[in-house]
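Q: Structure tokens for this one, please.
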Amino acid sequence: MRVPLFVSLLITLLLTASCSVGPKYRTPSAPVPPAYKQAVDGWKEAHPQDGTIRGIWWDMFVDPQLNALEEQVDISNQTLAVAEAQFRSARAAIRVARSDLFPTVTTTFTATKFRTSPGGLTTGTRLSSGTFYTLPFDVSYEADLWGRVRNTVQSQIATAQASAADLETARLSIHAELATDYLQLRGLDEQQRLFDATVAAYERALELTMNRYNEGVSSGVDVAQAQTQLETARAQALDIRIARAQFENAIAILIGKPPAELTIPPGSLAVNPPVIPIGLPSELLERRPDIAGSERRVASANAQIGVAKSAFFPTLTIAASGGVESSSIGTLLSLPNRFWSIGPVFAQTLFDAGRRKAMTAETEAVYDSTVGAYRQAVLSALQEVEDNLAALRILSDEATQQDLAIQAAQRSLDLAMNRYRGGITIYLEVITAQNALFANQRTGIDIRTRRMTASVRLVKALGGGWNSSTLPSPSSLISGKP
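A: Here is the predicted structure, written as tokens:
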């Protein structure tokens, strides 16, 4: 059997259709220093064989209540549910784009009732009325000669990977936000205990002043000052409960529960934050999901340049049609009733007033924009690490100094109380010493809380134990498997 010339040409084109226009992708360079400026003695640089931050990083805070709350985030948080749905949508878009690599086959069954006019042009034909049945099959396929479809698929794969990185970024942010809220709540618990102890001390001081007043040693002014100080402390203690309730409600929302369904009993705050391995700045490119997402968007934009450039070249579409037709449903599938046609269609845009050139320029500009966003993401990540390293280092020194201030304030109060009991001084000196001790103790708790929350922010800045190797592979995205 002799093969027609156009069929031979068509087969040759299909077998050699491996050209893909557009720039080859390379990961953009980023300004990364060899070491962190704030990584002074005491910070451990993590190496691959060392104990780096793991996925369940909140374990390092050794708080069972925090662990129990964190475990509920992945189950019930609605922000994560939205991000997960967006990832599934991006993954489905890959299969939509990839379907253009294959032919499209359609069919339509028709049954047409007809009757010809006796005076019409069809007079004298064999059939003047009846039903005509048709069962055609149409095949259409556009050969991907210049890589338009392949570049589109690559762009969608990179976009889906960026969406997966966005999901992990949201997951890390929510876990970190929960830990921060929880540690601030524990800081308020410490302040509540301080207020309770202070109120009790003020009550004892008021009782002492009342006894001295009854004995005629102290004046009514001393009693009024002691009473004012006590009631002020009680009012401030009540105000702590408002902030604590707000943090408790925020935590409930983060774990996907109505605030009414969550009650966190009072607890304590650790004295010192955990030791966090920081690694090298270059590792941030693999450990931060937001940086990985930005890099994947650069890859997607690069592939879109190839899609735009493919429009400058001609397209080859193969159209084929075949089927059966008959005036009788019983003989519709008979071999003599078959029909078919096939042929290639070459198309080339000759004039479009610069549309294709403008679209290419647009995709190149989008690419440059994504490169800038990627480099800015790297710089922002480096800043976050440096900021929190500096915060932890300085707060550690501040905590040491604050402990000395508390000790000095306690000695001052002891001296003032002894002088007051001995009748050497007035009660105002005691009040001044008590307020100084209380203020320094509150500052000490605030510093402890800030150190703990800075640790959480440092873990988040380091990527929370995530690694870019966990991004879904192109094969898994194409197959649609989890």
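A few notes: The CA atoms of residues 230 and 431 lie 10 Å apart. The beta strands are 104-107, 110-115, 129-143, 315-326, 338-347.
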